[in-house]
Design goal:
Length: 1002
């Protein structure tokens, strides 16, 4: 009441505060970052260690196992995953969400320093990488230049420095392109003739280019610095480098080698729409706005194109497009919700002034919310905008109740000032309690940790801020506007006539129902059980995938497959992609053993992304020379990639037992109807050649085994002797033998190592090695995946689970939950606990309001029975049950009880004046209008989102459907079943009180 009196007494000050809110609100709106999702900080650290020349099994035993053993006992570590591949070990540590990653990094670094002593000598130092889910590229360009231009050099020397100079850019990655170098092609016969080896030539070449400071010399009155140099800048300079033969003769490099410009074999190939390009991907700083960074990059790239004639730069991926489309779509839904809510208010009040008074709470509350969002560092994203859409309808609830009360007091012949003061004073307790009931539901959500807390924490805070702002608006601005604008309530409205008819029919029906209490309860319970059963028939997922118009094709081939062959095989996929009518553009990248195609679809496409992915999955089912994964992808995060198919994860402490079980699982999975391809996470086995150098034989020729292996490496892979600067560019000078000289395994034993045949000091051993060795918390892990069309996914997954349970695997093999299912279960469990805490807090608030736990429990019956409408509507809409849907259930706990509070409060007032049954019916009739106003405003504001209109509403659609269905069911419950429950709870007590009153009267 104090705030109401103050606003009525100080109208100018109140309006100035509103003006300040408008100014600072619009100012804050311009500073909020636009993002697709809230920033997420995953407590994951990765340790990457390079062990050159080692096969996956050796990497696992000598590197991964050592590191895992030392880091698994660190404080806060939840789980440890190791991936051992050829030459590389990757150890991934998942920490508890409560752990400070900065402290964890220091502890991990200290542990690795101690572990380094137990790693192999030629193993590189472990590198710690902090995982950042926000570090996906925000924009990618495909750059090409006119023929004769070194595009890769142009990009690295001109474009990359300009992009890295942008303050909002974190990193720039370049793929594709050809790199020039100076090739020194050695003549083995000439080398043998002059008694030279590759290493000796490399030493002579490396020593030819030098600059040595000589000191300071006096010249007249000046002291000048002096240096000695022998700059080499051209191929001709290199050809003239002197070499000493074994006999002491002096020859030139040109006598034993052919020196020329060459192009290095590409370690990756990039093509955009079938044309060879250089791909440039730019990643933003974590604190930067995606849209702001993208605009900065576009400005720089436009300038680069203008400055370099013949260069073209096409955008192959732009994350800001999806963000703008999604945010604009949800923003439009928000604006439409405001308009529809105003329309509902106009229908019920029949007076434009009254509708505007109540509706004023929406923009004012929104502006106050935006200011506090900016202070808290929130961004405008799908979650916070979705929260505002949900809050829009609830913002007018308190204002509607206050205005209704003001109208009732005005009907008692009070002036507008007194009517505003007394009308607000009568309901202020109810609306405060109602608002607190809604607010406490979101408190557990704000305090959540883990993935659900990071995603939905901002949603909880946003709604709490909005509801508190709307409460302040209702008890200050509504009475103030009522006093000065003097709205008139129109009694003879069509909606009132309709409500009168509804009330008459309701009274007849409800009196009959009160005499059939058991039937009403049994039917309600049966409907509740039926609706809960519908959940088991729905698909479940972590977060609904959005159709962003992007399809990803990943191809895995036999390890060691050359880039040129990968490129050739990927060309078939490119032809398939390019021929599809709905494809706008595509980017292909190829590297050793793998390739990928990222496809952007047209906005006005005829098929959905998933339908196109299914079509391509069907068309490529006979591609036997590669393993394909075709899926729709999302920018929400890398885990949102949505593929089609089932999977089974197996674990064991014995690698051979696990391999046997995986082979069996792969075999039986082929027999499942609808399966198009079967693969395992271990990949195909690769053939390894091990050169076993005999230490005694090597030492007898004056070489250690390591020296012999080093010389062999240089002979096979070449060796970089020096770098040359030509025309301002730096180029490598690489010594190598003619192609095929030592790259064929069959002729390797004929190689001469420092003049000694390799067969004299070594032997060859061929082994089959698993492509990837994966372990989780010490146990080996493999996943068998079956690809199918999206419509067969559930059936294939169910059949794979059944087969895995029935198969007789070795005793050490167990079936494990895969990472995605584990994450989903953890998120659901976390939100389930938040829901339980929210319900308990709602119970406490209502029990304190009514001073009776029984009243509180009775009103809370509206929560479970509201699920009849929620799950029923979700099932009919064909939507899946996800973490977003569960969020809707959490919100219902705070929304549906508000109407129950209004109803029970009315019954408690009326039952002192009339019989209990009459009070039950009369309270429902009296509260019908405010209940419908609050319910319809909330429902109508969410209808556009529930229909999935626009790009951004697809992800939040399940939440809107749950809330709308629950509100419809709870409204009917309160009007029809709440009188029944009240009579069951208090019927006997009321009769006893009535008899006692009659006895006292006698």
């Amino acid at each position: 009441m104090g705030l109401t009196k103050l606003s009525l007494r100080r109208p100018v000050s109140t309006l100035l505060i509103v003006l300040a809110l408008a100014v600072f609100g619009f100012s804050a709106l311009t500073t909020l970052r636009l993002e697709l999702m809230p920033d997420m900080d995953m407590p994951i650290l990765m340790v990457m260690t390079v062990y050159p020349g080692a096969d996956p099994k050796s990497v696992d035993e000598l590197v991964s196992t050592e590191i895992e053993g030392d880091v698994s006992s660190l404080s806060g570590v939840d789980s440890v995953m190791t991936y051992s591949q050829e030459n590389v070990s990757m150890v991934i540590l998942q920490y508890d969400y409560s752990v400070d990653t900065d402290e964890a990094y220091l502890d991990l670094r200290a542990a690795l320093d101690a572990t380094a002593a137990s790693l192999p000598d030629d193993c590189q130092d472990p590198v710690v990488i902090e995982m950042n889910v926000n570090s996906m590229p925000s924009i990618s360009y495909s750059v090409s230049a006119e023929e004769g231009t070194d595009t890769l050099t142009l990009v690295n020397d001109e474009i990359v420095p300009e992009l890295e100079a942008i303050s909002t850019v974190a990193s720039v990655d370049v793929t594709g392109g050809e790199e020039n170098y100076i090739r020194v092609m050695l003549d083995e016969e000439a080398l043998n003739q002059y008694g030279l080896s590759m290493s000796q030539v490399a030493q002579y070449v490396g020593a030819a280019d030098f600059m040595i400071p000589l000191g300071t010399l006096e010249q007249g009155s000046q002291s000048i610095s002096a240096s000695s140099t022998a700059d080499i800048e051209t191929v001709q300079d290199l050809q003239e480098i002197p070499l000493y033969t074994s006999t002491g003769s002096l020859i030139r490099l040109a006598d034993v080698a052919d020196v020329s410009w060459a192009v290095q074999d590409a370690d990756s190939v990039s093509r955009f729409n079938g044309q060879d390009t250089v791909s440039v991907s730019v990643t933003k700083n974590q604190s930067a706005s995606t849209i702001g960074m993208v605009n900065d990059v576009k400005e720089v790239m436009d300038r680069m194109v203008q400055e370099h004639e013949g260069m073209t730069a096409e955008i192959s991926y732009d994350a800001s497009d999806m963000i703008m489309e999604s945010v604009s779509s949800v923003g439009s839904t928000l604006a439409l919700g405001v308009v529809l809510t105003m329309a509902v208010l106009l229908i019920f009040f029949g007076d434009i002034k009254a509708s505007l008074i109540v509706g004023s709470s929406m923009p004012i509350s929104l502006l106050a919310t935006v200011i506090l969002m900016a202070v808290c560092g929130f961004s405008l994203n799908m979650i916070t905008l979705g929260a505002l859409v949900i809050a829009i309808g609830m913002m007018v609830d308190s204002s509607s109740v206050v205005l209704e009360s003001c109208f009732r007091y005005k009907d008692k012949d009070l002036d507008h000032n007194e009517a505003a003061l007394h009308g607000t004073g009568e309901v202020v307790g109810s609306i405060v309690a109602s608002t607190i009931t809604t607010v406490v539901v979101y408190l557990p959500l704000c305090l959540q940790q883990g993935l659900s807390g990071q995603i939905f924490g901002q949603l909880g805070y946003t709604i709490i801020i909005a509801m508190l702002a709307s409460l302040v608006s209702a008890i200050t601005l509504v009475p103030l506007f009522f006093k000065y604008f003097r709205p008139k309530e129109k009694k003879e409205l069509k909606i009132n006539v309709l409500l009168d008819k509804v009330k008459t029919g309701y009274e007849k029906t409800e009196r009959k129902l009160l005499n059939r209490k058991k039937t009403a309860v049994l039917v309600s319970v049966a409907l509740l059980v039926f609706s809960l059963g519908l959940v088991s028939l729905m698909d479940t997922e972590l977060i609904p995938a959005m159709d962003e118009g992007t399809v990803s094709i990943s191809a895995s081939m036999r390890p060691g497959t050359k880039v040129s062959l990968v490129e050739e095989r990927m060309a078939r996929l490119e032809d398939m992609v390019a021929s599809h009518e709905d494809v706008e553009s595509y980017t292909m990248t190829a590297s050793d053993g793998s390739g990928s195609i990222s496809v952007n679809l047209k906005d006005d496409r005829n098929m959905s992304s998933q339908e196109i992915a299914d079509q391509w999955t069907e068309e490529t089912k006979d591609f036997t020379d590669m393993q394909l994964e075709i899926s729709t992808s999302s920018t929400i995060s890398s885990m949102m990639t949505s593929g089609s198919g089932g999977s089974v994860t197996l674990t064991s402490t014995d690698l051979e037992d696990l391999q046997e079980a995986v082979a069996v699982m792969e075999e039986v999975s082929w027999n499942i109807p609808g399966v198009l391809n079967v693969s395992s996470s271990a990949g195909e086995s690769s053939t390894q050649v091990r050169v076993l150098i005999d230490p005694l034989n090597a030492m007898s020729y004056g070489m250690t085994p390591a020296q012999a292996a080093g010389s062999l490496y240089s002979m096979i892979s070449g060796t970089e002797a020096m770098t040359v600067t030509s025309n301002g560019q730096e180029y490598s000078v690489v010594l190598e033998y003619p192609e095929g000289t030592y790259t064929n395994a069959d002729s390797l034993m004929d190689a001469n190592v420092s003049g000694i045949p390799l067969s004299e000091i070594a032997s060859l051993e061929y082994t089959n090695s698993q492509q990837t060795v994966t372990r989780e918390d010490g146990a080996y892990v493999m996943t068998v995946s079956a690809t199918c069309l999206s419509e067969d996914t559930d059936a294939v997954q169910a059949e794979m689970d059944r087969l895995a349970e029935e198969e007789d695997f070795p005793d050490s093999v167990e079936i494990s939950v895969n990472t995605m299912d584990e994450m989903m279960n953890e998120s659901f469990r976390s939100l389930g606990l938040a829901l339980a805490a929210a319900i308990f807090l709602v119970f406490l608030v209502m029990a304190m309001q009514f001073e009776s736990p029984r009243y509180s429990l009775m009103v809370m019956l509206s929560i479970p029975f509201s699920l009849i409408g929620s799950f029923g509507l979700l099932f009919l809409s064909g939507s899946s049950f996800s973490m977003i849907s569960l969020m809707g259930v959490l919100m219902l706990a705070g929304i549906v009880v508000n109407n129950g509070i209004l109803y029970v409060d009315g019954v408690n007032l009326l039952r002192t004046e009339m019989a209990l049954e009459d009070a039950l019916i009369e309270s429902a009739k009296t509260r019908l209008r405010p209940i419908l106003i609050t319910t319809l405003t909330t429902i109508i504001s969410m209808v556009p989102g529930a229909l999935g209109i626009g790009e951004g509403n697809q992800m939040m659609q399940g939440m809107y459907i749950i809330i709308i269905g629950g509100l419809v069911a709870s409204t009917l419950l309160i009007l029809i079943l709440m009188p029944v429950f009240y009579l069951i709870f208090y019927g006997r007590k009321y009769k006893k009180e009535q008899k006692m009153n009659e006895a006292n009267m006698v």
